[in-house]
Amino acid sequence: MKPLCESVEKVISNDDLLTLILLRVPARSLLQLKCVSKHWLSLISARLFSILRNAIPLRASALFLQLPPSFYGVPCEINFVPLDDTTCIASSPFRNLTFANDPGNISRIRIVQSCGGLLLCSSCPFCTSISEFTLYVYNPTTNYLVTLPKHWPAYYTSIFAFDPSKSPHFKVFVCASPPELSTDQGRFQIYSSETGSWKASGHAFNFTSRADKLAWRNGVYFNGCIHWIGKLEYGCSYFNLDEERLHTMPRPPVGQIFDVGVSENHLHVIEVHSHDYTVQVFEMKNDYSGWIVKYKIDLSLVCQVFPEMTRSRHLFKILSLVRREICREDSFLVFKIPGKVIRYNLVDKSFKPIWDIPASDPLTRPRGDYKAYQYFESLSYV
């Protein structure tokens, strides 16, 4: 038998074999392995390595939980909640977003959306002028950051589009009123990281009411398109980023209170029936012909173990649906009850607390509830 050191030497001297091994190492560990040698640093930092790694399906490992902005000047603390083994708590990449050279209040930079391991962030919504409002794209794993150039001032939504398995480039989509139009008219504007600039897209359209403007704010990226699911039938549409065309789609069979999300490249809508604590998850068909019921969830047993759920119904909130079918793991639902965040296994129906919600000062705590953003370890460039 050859000495172990000789076998190891053969492995580390073969770049192809070493690359295959490093591709299976967690992203945050890879950042530490860059310090092993200049050669390993060059290998891991290469754009080809990032592209090869992006072909591996992403796995959500944690949630960022963010409260609405505070009017009291309190820094916007973002809580990091690991989704798996909480006996060994992973360290948060950050607690506050404080990007250098931000002209607004640095304590109030906020997450707007999470997509493909990157975060779309914006400066404080209380900036004194639109010139202080800035959009960023940030990789919390590598700490890479890019500041986007200014877009049209009067805008109603910003949506992040990024799929690292298809392209290393991302897009940011805004629905806004350009200077030459009135505030009752809108148009789309798209930023591409490939070109580093914004461009106008599509024809101008009219907002018939304030509800129309609000409907554009809840868009999500899925399958190369931006999707909006409004409270009314006509409010369901999607915009194909390659064709730059707007299409309509069927509305899911839900009421006016629901959550929209994407997990493992599936578009879903979650509706909660608070009178009996049942949850239905609808999934859009690939051909956009309609919706199917993916999950029917009965949380009555959770109510028995945590009776505070029924006493404070207004504090119950769905945070995230995490699917792991590609990884051959059980999918689960994450939701908030008074004082705790619960992970509910959708296969074996087991559940457990994964985070104790910290108490806060009732005088400075902002109104509103937590909003969750999935965290994926990623080496993607921005």
TrEMBL record:
Which Pfam family, just one, is annotated for this protein?
FBA_1
According to UniProt, the name of this protein is: Uncharacterized protein
- Species, as recorded: Daucus carota subsp. sativus (Carrot)
InterPro entries reported in the protein's UniProt record: At3g26010-like (IPR055290), F-box-assoc_dom_typ1 (IPR006527), F-box-assoc_interact_dom (IPR017451), F-box-like_dom_sf (IPR036047), F-box_dom (IPR001810)
Domain called F-box: residue spans: 15-46
Q: Please list the residue ranges annotated as the F-box associated beta-propeller type domain.
A: 105-272
The organism's place on the tree of life at top rank? Eukaryota
